[in-house]
Amino acid sequence: MSFGRRLRSKLLGNLFGLESRKYKDSKINSYYDNKGLSKRDIKKGLHRKNVGGMWEEIGKLQFSFLIEQGLAPDMKFLDLGCGSLRGGIHFINYLEPGNYYGMDVNAPLVEAGYNIELKKAGLTHKLPKTNLILENQFKTSRFGILFDYALAVSVFTHLPLNHIRLCFIELSKSMKSGGKFYATFFECPDRVPIEQKIEHQPGGVVTNIEQDPYHYKRSDFLWCIEGLSWKMQYIGDWNHPRAQKMVCFTKI
After folding, report:
1. CATH topology (fold) of 3-251
2. What's the 3-state SS for the chain?
3. pLDDT in tens, 29-56
């Protein structure tokens, strides 16, 4: 990331009031890592498109899914890769004030989520700005609380495997015993060589092993949690319009 981008990200965080800190470049080659958005872009609504589009459909899908999985209003909930609050709007409205927490690498997206989407929904009173932080190393302990539920939609799809393992290492420090972490990914079936490009249907997204967007086998996640206080349950299809699969990790 250039000096200009680092400075712009820092200034946006400070002006917006996000809790930010100095950190090294993540160098993960992710589509969303510090992707810039100008004020003109945001005015055009590109903050909705740049989190993958399908704003209403996927926002409502992730919310209804977690309600079915037992998320309750009095629970502490972490939205990893919260972006411009596509799902956050629904969770913030449902949860008791202050129970939603969001983490992302991209200051302009989070700024648009709070200043545009949340204000338009009349929900700023339910979300302290300190509940949103900029972070590229999954330092969830910065929030200083333990979470009941966490969710990462379209996060692992943009990360190499070692960064996913880092996510489990850090998040394990911030989850209650029995807490649930749900994450989506593009699956490489066991019968398909991991190095082969895969076109996923529906949606037609083509994934790779060496670059974003990534695909993984289920066993890759077993490696990621090896030696950590997690157990894994494969859920699979959850009606995602681009064929991302769901997996659940429980803190033990």
Report:
1. Rossmann fold (3.40.50)
2. CCHHHHHHHHHHHHHHCCECCCCCCCCCCCCCCCCCCCHHHHHCCHHHHCCCCCHHHHHHHHHHHHHHCCCCCCCCEEEECCCCCCCHHHHHHHCCCCCEEEEECCHHHHHHHHHHHHHHCCCHHHCCHHHEEECCCCCHHHHCCCEEEEEECCCHHHCCHHHHHHHHHHHCCCEEEEEEEEEEEEECCCCCCCCCCEEECCCCEEEECCCCCEEECHHHHHHHCCCCCEEEEEEECCCCCCCCEEEEEEEC
3. 554 454 566 666 766 666 666 656 687 8
In the structure encoding, which two tokens stand for residue 96, read together? 């008791």
Considering only the C-alpha atoms of the chain, give the largest distance between any 2 of them, rounded to a whole number of Å: 50
Question: CA 22, CA 4: separation in Å to the nearest integer?
Answer: 15
Per-residue pLDDT averaged across 188-216, rounded?
97
Q: Mean pLDDT lowest for which of 17-26, 58-67, 94-103?
A: 17-26
Distance CA 125, CA 123 (A): 5
pLDDT over 70 (residue 157)? yes
Provide the CA 225 distance to its chain's centre, in angstroms. Answer: 18
Q: Tell me which residue of 163, 215, 173 sits closest to 190, measured CA to CA.
A: 215
Instruction: Give the C-alpha separation, 49 to 115, whole Å.
Output: 17
Domain map of the chain by residue range?
3-251
Residues in the chain: 252
